[in-house]
Amino acid sequence: MKRKVIFDTDTASDDTIALLLSLEFFDVVGVTVVAGNVKYENEINNALFTLEYFGYSHVPVFLGASRPIRGIWRTVEEVHGEKGMGRLDIPKPSKKPENIFASDAIIELSKKYNGELEILAVSPLTNLALAYLKDPSIVKRIKKVWIMGGAFTRGNTTEIAEFNFWVDPEAAEIVLKSGFDITIVPWEITEEAATITDDEWSRISSMGTKRSNFFIKVNEVLREYSKSTGAKGSVHPDSLTVTIAYDNSIILESVKKRVDVEVCGKSRGAMLVDWYDMTKSDIKAEIVTKADSSKFKKYLFEVLSKA
C-alpha cells in the first residue's frame, strides 16, 4: 500500500516534476499551494494543469497562503519562466481547487490519516506553520515532514540563504521548533546530486514520451538560469527531496542536529545548524549531507520514460 502524503508546493518547473514523482511513488491525498516561486495565480494554474495533464484530476488541490507571514519576498520568474512553466504556454485548466484553506486541509487530513500522513514540503513552509499555530497537536498526528530548504554556506537567493527558507524564515523557524519528525535536504546537496547534465538532458529529450517532453519544456528556462550561475545543468531540488522521501537509501550521509533560521538583517533566511549541540535541545532534524545521485536519476529516468 502506498504511503499517504500531502504535496506542499509553490508550483513551477521542478515542482511539477516533483509532483509527478509524488503521484508515481505515493498516495497523494492533497496538493497544497503556497506563495513562492511565481505569481500565486500562476502557481495555482500550474498545479491544477499538471494533475489534469497526467490524469490525476481526482487529487484535491487546496489553496493556502498567498504571501509569507511577514510578506517580505519576491517571485523568481527569471528562474522558472514568466508563468513558472518554462516556455510552455498552458491552457486554463478545467479542474478547480477545493473550497477549504490549505492549512485547515492539512489539519483535517492529519486527523483522517492519523499517524500515517507525511508532508512533502518542497516550498516555503507557510502553510504548515499556520496549521501548527492553529493546532499544535498536529505534531503528534503527522508521521514525517520532508523539507527541501536551507543552505550550509552558499545560498541560491542571497549569499547564505536558500529560496524556500528566505521567502518565509518565520514559518521555517516555527516548523523547525515544533517537534515534527523532520528530514532536510539542503541546497548544496541538491546541486551535487540533482543536477541534470547536458548528456542527461539529451537522454531525457530522446525518450520521446509525454512525460519526458513535459520535463524538457517546463525546465528549459530553469536549465538556462542554472547554467548561467555556473551549474553544469538544471538543478532539481524538489524532485530529489521527493525521491529521497520515497527511498531513504538515497541518503548516503546525514547528521541529526538542532536547526534554526535567521529572521533578521542581511542574513535573513540563513539556516543555523547547532553543530556542537550547545543548546542541548531534544528537538532535532535529520540533515542530509550526501545523496546518491545515480540512484536518484535512475528513478527519475524510469518515471519519465513511461508512456
Describe the structure.
By secondary structure, the protein is α/β, with parallel strands linked by helices. The protein has a single domain (4-305), classed as Alpha-Beta Complex (Inosine-uridine Nucleoside N-ribohydrolase, Chain A). It is 41% helix and 18% strand. It contains 13 helices and twelve strands. Strands 3-2-1-4-5-6-12-9 form an eight-stranded mixed sheet, sandwiched between helices. Strands 7-8 form a two-stranded antiparallel sheet. Strands 10-11 form a two-stranded antiparallel sheet. Strand 2 (27-33), helix 2 (40-53) and strand 3 form a beta-alpha-beta unit. Helix 4 packs across helix 5 and helix 5 (126-134) crosses helix 8 (169-176). The longest helix is centred in the last third of the chain and has 19 residues, at 210-228. The radius of gyration is 18 Å and the shape is globular. It starts with a strand and ends with a helix.
Q: What is the domain total for the residues?
A: 1
Strand content bin: 15-25%
Q: Within the CATH hierarchy, at the fold level, what is the topology?
A: Inosine-uridine Nucleoside N-ribohydrolase, Chain A
Number of helices: 13
Q: What is the CATH class name? A: Alpha Beta
Order of helices and strands: EHEHEHHEHHEHHEHEHHEHEEEEH
The pLDDT mean sits at 97
Shape annotation: globular
Number of separate strands: 12
CATH architecture descriptor: Alpha-Beta Complex
